[in-house]
Design a protein that fits this description.
The chain is α+β, with helices and mostly antiparallel strands. It is built from 44 helices and 15 strands.
Length: about 950
């Protein structure tokens, strides 16, 4: 932000004095009040002007505070004056205390009208929110003033006071009496707030130990069940739930909880969705209910032992006027409700009540299984969460008839649903082998349909094998014959069945060690080459070294190949590289707790087994302790990047399939690198992006091979690949900070290569912008080489020489004698080596509480307010970020600049909540916005037409997830 000079400040102050002079002559008209506020919020306004404004406002207030409500315009002016005083207190801290005291005198004065006193109290609370030192002054405010306003004849005054009642310090015994008195207020919203206050005061009421007072509050809430207003009935349900259970504690009658429960069940058929939803939420909060009453909620037919039973409707009467039939089929009605909010609440409460009865839990499970087919994703997710709660309480007893419905959720289109279903599956205790097999097959179908779930699925298989050891051994033994190498001698781990066998085999010995001996040793041997991939999936269960110890032991390997003669190299070969071996004692410390948790194995027995393993597997020279550090992890990343650089000769020779296979392996290896510090997060992101750039180069290079050009080329394909390469290179250059000059140089040479590839095509050789980019990039490379005291590479030097000798014509076309083939032959992919810290500029974007069933309301043709939450990582004041929103894919986008006013301070992690209006609302009942955070690249890099007035001018790169925001037309209130 540009700092203002002294001359600018002098001009601003002088302008402020002129404005104030005009305002004084206008006798504080409405127009002048707006000008006053602009002076107040302007930080350049001098103190003597602020002081003059303060004195003028207080003088007017003193003159008019005797006015009554008969002069409505005068009363409105008083409110404007108070708000301006509040602005002064917030923006000019020198005046905060004096304004607070002055306004407090207005609020305490009984000579002014109540509306003005309430406005004064509102200003006091606002000022105290901005100054913690004044919070105690609010607490010390005279409670008699607040209580007096509770009985004011004005509805708006009473409503404001009850809404803010707990922000003042008022004795609980007085609060209870006041709230009970206003439960019958003529105004419905006052009645609702009074009932809400009773719930909030429940803990204080218990301390009174006054059973009569609790009974009075309970009875008044029951009377409100027939209130005409939905919000009052919903609030009354909360009071009945909380105060009814308090009444049981004070009276000691155990059966009273059944009465409260049946009373709540009587409201689950209310005409209002809000009331029904609150009824089911309250049912889930009940602490203890009789089993026969619970079973009645699952049956619409009244059970025999409850047909004649009645409960007291109120506490202060002995009339048994509440039949048990009120609870009949309560949850059936809830689960069949037309509103998903009610169905979700019913699912939740059903799960909470299963803690009290195993029989009720078994019957409830039949209803819950049907809810897994609910059309609402929210309800399906809540159903699975309820099942998870039942499983943790040992109340989930699934039968074979249930499994088909349950396993269907493993292939749900929602990632959240699939993850929740697998979470439940981890805790299930399956009684039969047939059910175990169907569960494993369900997970394999999940893996085949959604390969991205692999890590979570492997973890679930591991837990299932550990919890069902005998079943797992039988399953592995049966399928072990399917683990066969291909004719080339390679094992296809992408076969889901093979993956399941290997993971289950690893989990089996944790149940009982003898089970590991029942599994063919070749299964464990086949798992060793894929140790890194399996260890990544099971990282929450065991370390890579722990798994290696198990695999070596049960595969019957007696020595590690190559270790006899290589004393200085303590590496074990695994897929994608090598694995460094830890001290076996350290491995033991990791393995032992895991084994003991599962079967309580003897510590001495297991220690002896591992000592035998150490003697047969690890030479003494390899038993020194190794501690993994950030530096070692950085070396692993550099090793992977060295492999990437080594693929260049294969790329030039046309071995594209082999190169792509190697690069995909490098990407997977990067994904398995464990990061325990923020220092390496940026490096891993950069390395992954770099591997992607090289992958694009391999795809592009095929088009420039003489023998393969006709076979591979498709119309428009090369242009598309070049665009992707340009985009990924811009992300490398501008979405990472901390690159050294030595690290930046290879990236700039890749930019030059991309330009040469684009120019070498006859159809696009007239691209003036590409030529300009070549010249600017060569200039940047020359400056870097000069600072590093090195020479230009042969590729960059020849390109500079060719441009200077032959140049380009007036229309931007290169001379026909320009040799592209010679330049491409000179390029060599340099190895990237990092020795510093990189920071990844990225963002996370979300709209909490918004989905297709909870859209943001809008009116067609008018702006719609959208509130987003963003987490920005490593953003500095030099980065130009925008929030991009579009209603149609490929259509016009709207941009909101994320400057310092929106972001605030520039820290490593910034959490921002921002409300943005979307202007182009279509004429539709609903629509979906696609929003993301984008970064504007420097405009001199490539030319990009302006996207509208005030919008980004340069090329944009997406730095966050793309979030869908659902909007629905607002319902008419007429």
């Amino acid at each position: 932000m540009r700092r203002c000079g002294p001359n600018h400040l002098i001009r601003t102050k002088k302008m402020g004095e002129e404005i104030w002079g005009k305002i004084e002559k206008s006798n504080l008209s409405i127009q002048s009040l707006c000008s006053i506020r602009s002076l107040i919020i302007n930080p350049s306004t001098s103190n003597h002007i602020i002081c003059a404004i303060f004195e003028t406002l207080t003088q007017y207030l003193h003159q008019q505070q005797e006015q009554t409500l008969e002069n409505q315009n005068q009363n409105q002016n008083q409110n404007h004056y108070l708000k301006l005083l509040c602005d002064i207190a917030i923006n000019h801290h020198d005046f905060t205390r004096i304004i607070f005291d002055r306004v407090r005198s207005f609020a305490s004065s009984r000579s002014v009208n109540s509306q003005f006193r309430v406005e004064s109290l509102s200003v006091l609370l606002t000022i105290a929110e901005h100054d913690e030192n004044l919070v105690s002054s609010i607490a010390e405010f005279d409670e008699n003033v607040i209580i007096e306003l509770c009985f004011d004849s004005s509805v708006s005054v009473r409503y404001w006071v009850f809404k803010n009642l707990f922000r003042f310090r008022i004795r609980d015994e007085i609060l209870v009496r006041v709230l009970l008195g206003f439960v019958n207020d003529p105004y419905p919203y006052v009645r609702r707030i009074s009932l809400d206050g009773l719930v909030r005061l429940s803990k204080s009421v218990v301390e009174f130990k006054n059973g009569g007072l609790i009974a009075e509050g309970y009875d008044r809430a029951v009377d409100s069940f027939v209130d005409r207003n939905d919000c009052v009935r919903a609030a009354a349900i909360c009071v009945v739930c909380v105060w009814g259970q308090m009444l049981k504690d004070s009276s000691g009658e155990q059966d009273w909880l059944d009465s409260v429960f049946v009373q709540l069940c009587s409201m689950v058929r209310d005409m209002s969705m809000e009331v029904r939803n609150e009824a089911f939420v309250s049912l889930g909060k009940m602490k203890m209910v009789s089993e026969d009453i619970l079973l009645q909620t699952l049956s619409k037919k009244v059970l025999g032992n409850l047909k004649e039973r009645k409960f007291p409707g109120k506490s202060n009467t002995k009339i048994l006027d509440l039949p048990a039939s009120n609870a009949a089929g309560a949850f059936i009605h809830g689960l069949e409700d037309e509103f998903y909010e009610v169905r979700r609440s019913a699912c939740y409460s059903l799960g909470m009540l299963t803690d009290f009865s195993a029989r009720f839990a078994n019957d409830a499970l039949n209803l819950l299984m049907d809810m897994l087919n609910d059309h609402s994703m929210v309800v399906r997710l809540q159903t699975l969460e309820t099942m998870y709660h039942m499983a943790t309480c040992d109340r989930l007893k699934v039968q074979e008839a249930h499994m088909h419905m349950f396993l269907g959720t493993l292939v749900d289109t929602s990632t959240l649903i699939r993850r929740a279903a697998r979470k439940v599956l981890c805790l299930l205790k399956l009684p039969f082998m047939k059910i175990f097999k169907s569960s494993i097959n369900g997970l394999l179908t999940n893996l085949e349909t959604y390969p991205e779930d692999e890590a979570d699925i492997f973890s679930v298989l591991f837990y299932m094998g550990r919890n069902h050891g005998n079943f797992a051994v039988s399953f592995v033994t049966e399928l072990s014959q399917e683990i066969k190498p291909s004719c080339e001698g390679e094992l296809r781990f992408d076969n889901p069945r093979v993956a399941a066998v290997l993971v289950l085999a690893i989990s089996a010995p944790l149940t009982h060690e003898r089970l590991g001996c029942s599994i063919p040793s070749k299964v464990f041997s086949c798992a060793i080459p894929f140790l890194g991939r399996i260890a990544f999936s099971l990282r929450d269960c065991a370390t890579q070294d722990t798994l290696l110890a198990y695999l070596l032991k049960f595969s019957k390997i007696t020595h590690v190949p190559g270790m006899e003669s290589s004393v200085e190299d303590d590496l074990f070969p695994v897929a994608g590289g090598t694995l460094q071996l830890h001290n076996i004692d350290e491995i033991f410390n990791q393995v032992l707790p895991l084994q003991q948790i599962c079967n309580g194995a003897s510590e001495d027995l297991f220690r002896n087994d591992l000592r035998d393993l150490r003697q047969t597997t690890f030479p003494l020279s390899h038993q020194r302790k190794v501690i993994f550090t950030d530096e070692e992890a950085e070396k692993n990343v550099n090793l992977i990047l060295r492999t990437v650089a080594a693929t260049w000769q294969l790329i030039k020779s046309g071995f594209t399939d082999e190169v792509q296979k190697t690069l995909r392996s490098c990407s997977k290896d990067l994904a398995t690198v464990a990061v325990n510090s923020k220092r390496l997060t940026g490096l891993l992101a950069f390395a992954s992006q770099y591997v992607q750039v090289v992958q694009h180069l391999a795809e592009i290079w095929v088009h420039f091979l003489p023998l393969s050009k006709l076979r591979y080329r498709k119309i428009g394909m090369l242009d598309h690949l070049l665009e992707k390469l340009d985009y990924d290179l811009r992300k490398l250059r501008y979405e990472f900070s901390g690159l050294s000059k030595k690290e930046e140089l290879p990236i700039l040479e890749l930019v030059l290569l991309a330009c040469v590839l684009r120019l070498s095509e006859m159809e696009i050789c007239c691209n003036v912008n590409t030529l300009k980019r070549v010249q600017s990039t060569i200039s940047d490379i020359e400056l870097l080489c000069e600072d590093l005291h090195i020479k230009l590479s042969e590729f960059a030097g020849e390109l500079r020489k060719s441009l200077s000798e032959q140049g380009y014509l007036d229309d931007g076309a290169l001379s026909q004698q320009f040799s592209f083939k010679r330049l491409l032959d000179l390029f060599s992919l340099k190895e990237m080596v990092f020795d510093g810290m990189l920071k990844h500029i990225k963002a996370e974007l979300g709209v909490p509480g918004n989905d297709s069933e909870n859209p943001i309301p809008f009116v067609s043709g008018l702006p719609a307010g959208v509130t987003v939450q963003m987490t920005l990582f490593n953003v500095s004041d030099k980065d130009r970020l925008w929030l991009e929103m579009s209603a149609h894919e490929g259509g016009l986008s709207q941009y909101a600049f994320l400057g310092s006013n929106q972001i605030g301070s520039y820290d490593e992690i910034n959490k921002v909540k921002l409300s943005v209006p979307f202007y182009n609302t279509p004429k539709a009942a609903s629509f979906v916005l696609r929003a993301c955070v984008v970064k504007e690249y420097p405009s001199e890099d490539v030319y990009q037409p302006a996207r509208g007035s005030g919008g980004p001018k340069g090329e944009l790169g997406v730095v966050s997830n793309i979030t869908k925001i659902y909007l629905g037309a607002a319902k008419s209130t007429t």
